[in-house]
């Protein structure tokens, strides 16, 4: 499989307006570091990608750097267990922070970062899931290790209309959990019910969070942070768990130790970038089996040229579900 000398990429650069994503052409030989070269067919847009591309947050730790924390595609230079022609997915690690990311026609990474796309998932499916799917699956994995099982009571999902939230709703519902979805977008309520949410509510009132409030949740998946996380801690049932993976509502949490020492509430921090390889493979297996979702109900496709606009849209909150960026055809 021949590899061209140059490739189109969406690169984070220092501009007169600050750090911005810029469409450019780069030598393939200069892209990334590692022993595995992948022809990227699809990527996706996460909130973190939008922050990096618009300069809203200092995500990139060196510049210039190709954006995109996720990529799926076809191996063109084999390494490790991967053979030419294999379909692989790469999410997390240092992509778009220290290492060139997936917003390019080619990505070069260490072979250990790539995971074979498990059947029956397609490369498009893999990017509907992407880091959002890995994050949701890892949160469910941790909560179930803590003893969570269907029938124990409702599971709360905050930021439910976002990428991770919508995937989490679908995964939990598919596993048989009673899901209460929270979103500030009134026009997304019906969509969340279609994904399997039992109850859909607006944002919870966190103006005055009690130290210990009525026990409501068997567990929760939180992408908001801030006072929403404090409210979840105060309303989680005895022995329940909270999977925390976001800070859309702020990074400061004003709470006490009481939910943790009196009710035994467990707080699980979810870092989907770095965790054991065997768990990563297990999660992708589960996303193709017992955590499989209807990706068509969540994902929609935009072309590579539209990526700058999509990055702006996700930061302003005008994107629901998962946006897949089509970079090339698999064949």
At a glance:
With 331 residues, this protein is α/β, with parallel strands linked by helices. It has helices at 47-54, 123-145, 163-174, 189-195, 226-235, 258-262, 277-287, 307-315; strands spanning 6-15, 18-27, 36-45, 65-66, 70-77, 87-91, 106-109, 115-116, 155-157, 179-182, 199-201, 217-222, 236-244, 266-269, 299-303, 322-326. Helix 1 (47-54) crosses helix 8 and helix 2 crosses helix 7 (277-287).
Can you walk through the features of this model?
There is one protein chain. The termini are close together. This protein has about 325 residues and is an alpha/beta fold. The chain has helices spanning about 45-55, 125-145, 165-175, 190-195, 225-235, 260, 275-285, 305-315, and strands spanning about 5-15, 20-25, 35-45, 65, 70-75, 85-90, 105-110, 115, 155, 180, 200, 215-220, 235-245, 265-270, 300-305, 320-325. Helix 1 (about 45-55) crosses helix 8 (about 305-315), helix 2 packs across helix 3 (about 165-175) and helix 2 (about 125-145) packs across helix 7. The longest helix is centred in the middle third of the chain and has 23 residues, at about 125-145. Strands 3, 5, 6, 7, 8, 15 and 16 form a seven-stranded mixed β-sheet that branches. It has two domains: about 5-115 and about 300-325, Medium-chain alcohol dehydrogenases, catalytic domain (Quinone Oxidoreductase, Chain A, domain 1); about 130-270, Rossmann fold (3-Layer(aba) Sandwich). Strand 12, helix 5 and strand 13 (about 235-245) form a beta-alpha-beta unit.
